[in-house]
Amino acid sequence: MTSWRHDVSLYISTVSRLTLYSPLYSEKTLQSPTMTRTILNEWFPNTTYPFISNAPMQGTATSKLGSAVSKAGRSGFIGGAYNFLPESPEIPAFDAELTAVRNLLQLREDDVLPLGVGFLTLHPSVSGFLDVVGPVVKRQKPAAVWLFAPDGPLAHERIIPGLKELGSAWKLRVFVQVGNVAAAREAASQGADAIVAQGADAGGHAWAHGAGIVTLVPEIRQMVQTEFSDREIAVVAAGGIVDGRGIAAALALGADGVTMGTRFIVADEAMTPDDMKDTVIKTKDGASSTIKHTIHDDIQGTGFWPKAYDGRAIMGKAYEEYVAGTPLDELKARHQTLLSAKDNSRRIVWAGSAVGLVNSRKPAGEIIVSAGNEARQIIEGLSKGLKL
Ligand SMILES: Cc1cc2nc3c(=O)[nH]c(=O)nc-3n(C[C@H](O)[C@H](O)[C@H](O)COP(=O)(O)O)c2cc1C
């Protein structure tokens, strides 16, 4: 009988569509027959295996973080916009951020940007998405666009084919983040290239009814393989992954790559206020110190999220007061007053349940290189029956 460890290594080397691994960056890498390149590495030739991206965290993942991640041989993402009205200030802002990426990476005006841009698609103005976002995407040529949080099944129906058409010259890839198999099926049938399977451990907003990546990733992988066997659709795991252990596990579950949000909140290049980084680093035991709820949105005045979503944040003073029975209006008033008085103790800190494993601030490149190397070491070790 073969051991499960043997099965894992067989699975990894079979499921990943392999070509020989060739490191594109000067980082010290491990060489072994299990070094692979997945479909994501083929689509994004600047990336090395394992494929890691930072989440396009609005306000946190700007040009500095996104370009640092891409520079380190992974796939950077920046937050784009969520208001698509023609006069929305977010549109020129993300355009300027993409220009900043171009400058940081010293690319020419007509080069494809080796990075993606994420959009939240819950706002009613999403009907104007292609009109306002389309021209910027066409001019800036990001390698990928990431969509998340549609208010209903039809929101992406025109957007995905529209994006793919306008980006056909450089093979723009569309990522859609989902929290269940039905939404993954919907995204795939609308033409998504990559399904980001977001598990319930994720920081920030997510499907209110969710499951962990241990079940979500294999079920989505299976659905894609059986129902869309004529297409190459990548599966990316998100939620609770902060290091090589999580990456190796996600690959074993059938993911082609991973996305990390919480780990990058404390990256040097993230636009996270210092006190928030400190809170993330000192918070331990994410199972009991974070909560998935709608109350934090209600308190901070972002309660416009559709019912299908809630958000995971660190439980702080405001949450304690909510549990103790303080009325919402009072909580909102305290939030406003103390924020304007610059009292950070009431800050709402969105973070995932893996926050307890985030122990240090580092440059994004270091986070990525050490997580990638650790994942490869684990995969090799498992195939030899070694203990973690
Ligand atoms: C602070 C924070 C902000 C986020 N903002 C966004 C966002 O603007 N758009 C988006 O699609 N996802 C956002 N997410 C969710 C991520 O896309 C991703 O699912 C999540 O970070 C993965 O889980 P992890 O935090 O455990 O790594 C955010 C996550 C965090 C922690």
From TrEMBL:
The keyword Flavoprotein applies. This is Inosine monophosphate dehydrogenase. GO terms for molecular function: nitronate monooxygenase activity. It comes from the Eukaryota. PANTHER family: 2-NITROPROPANE DIOXYGENASE, 2-NITROPROPANE DIOXYGENASE FAMILY, PUTATIVE-RELATED. Keywords: Flavoprotein, FMN, Oxidoreductase. It comes from Microthyrium microscopicum.
